[in-house]
Amino acid sequence: MKEGLGFVKMNPSGNTTLLITDPVARDRQLPLALVLATPEYLAVDQVGFLEKPEDAGAEARLQMMGGEFCGNASRALAAYLLQGKGGVTRGSVILEVSGSDTLVEAFVEKRTEGCWWTEVAVPVPRTVRTQRIPLGNEMVEAVYVELPGIDHLVLEGIEPSRATFEYLERNGYLPHNAEARGVMFWNRAARTLTPLVAVGASDPVREGSCGSGSIAVATALAMADRTSIRDLQLHQPGGELLVTAEYGSGGITRALIKGTVDMIATGRVSVPAHDSFPAGSYTRRER
Question: Which residues make Cβ contacts (< 8 Å) with residue 155, sequence separation at least 6?
């Protein structure tokens, strides 16, 4: 038995995102998302579900597949909502987003047909700490950044690998019980960032770009230098992001990500009936 769900596939700076526009029960969202993200279905980095907001000040709620916060998906939804307003080419969109205790505001401006420039103010880090970690035959410095709904570990000058991610998680350097968690492999000289991210109990995958991970990198730099980092350009596997982390009173007071969003496709997708994909049956795979 099949059921059809409305969807829009968006590309916020290479972090391909599927937005499901029909209601889906919370306990079915993650297992369904892990199916839809596969190459056999719609081949995306991540999936978010549109819900009715609880706060009257928000236009919509974005519930991510693992309950995490995602800045890129927030940008994607804001662009999608603006294009649905018929003739409106720029403006602000207020969202409820999973993993965030506060409303999220995004600015959107249409550039060309199916392409928007977006800027979103994201929740600031809750915790930032520097630690030394044994990797191979040396001790390396890592910065742990806890954000609402997702935790990141920032490593500089280390070759990206799933084996390193799993080593860090296995040895307690990256909390396994976080809704979502990532290791950000950052190269200062080249301004490149390779994000590996895991959601829930799924395996880590290399994403095209990562908004919260970009904030983690800018936070690490701002805290180390005790100064604001503004419009840091990060080249990521699927695209580029500009990221700002404003420093004050010993912490980050404001965080912002900017970048393009492209619409790839809209339509309806046929998926297995709910009872054929019980929770935990699937793992997240790279495209």
Answer: 140, 142, 164, 183, 184, 185, 186
**CATH T-level assignment (fold) for domain 127-258:** Diaminopimelate Epimerase; Chain A, domain 1 (3.10.310)
Domain with CATH 3.10.310.10 in the chain: 2-122+262-276, 127-258
User: 259: part of which helix (H) or strand (E)?
Assistant: strand 251-272
Mean pLDDT, the chain, as a whole number? Answer: 92
Q: What is the pTM of this model?
A: 0.91
Q: Which CATH superfamily is domain 2-122+262-276 in?
A: Diaminopimelate Epimerase; Chain A, domain 1 (3.10.310.10)
Give the whole-angstrom CA distance, residue 3 versus residue 158. 44
> How do beta strands 104-112 and 46-51 pair?
unpaired
Quickly tell me which residue has 């998680």 as its tokens. Answer: 169
69: three-class secondary structure by DSSP = coil
189 Cβ partners below 8 Å, 6+ apart?
Answer: none
- Mean of pLDDT values over 11-38: 95
What is the band of 286 on the pLDDT scale with cuts at 50, 70, 90? Answer: low
As a three-state string, the secondary structure of 156-197 is: ECCCCCHHHHHHHHHCCCCCCCCCEEEEEEEECCCCEEEEEE
